[in-house]
Amino acid sequence: MNPNPKAYPVLSYVMGQSSNQAISGDSDTVQVEIQGSDTNVEEQMPNLKNPKMLASMTDSVSNVAQARKVLEGLGERPDHETLDMAHAKIEEIDSKLSKQLEEIVLAPQPEGVEQMEWRAQQAQKEKQCRQAAEKEKYPFKAIIQLDEMHQAYEQLLRDEEEKLVKMYESAEENSEFLPAKDEVNEEVINILQEASHKNVEKVVLSGRLLRFLPEAFGRLRNLVILDLSSNQLEVIPDSIAGLEKLEELYLSSNQLVSLPDSIGLLLTLKILDVSANKLKALPDSIAYCRSLVELDASFNQLTFLPTNIGYELVNLQRLSVHLNKIRSLPSSVSEMRSLRHLDLHFNELRSLPQSIGRLTNLEYLNLSSNFSDLTGLPLTIGDLTNLKELDLSNNQIHALPDTFGRLEKLTKLNLDQNPLVIPPMEIVNQGVEAVKEYMAKRWLDILLEEERKSMVQENNQAQTGWLIRSTSWLNNFVHGITGNVAEYLGTEGKSPRDPYLDQQL
Question: Coiled-coil intervals in this record (predicted)?
Answer without folding.
Answer: 143-174
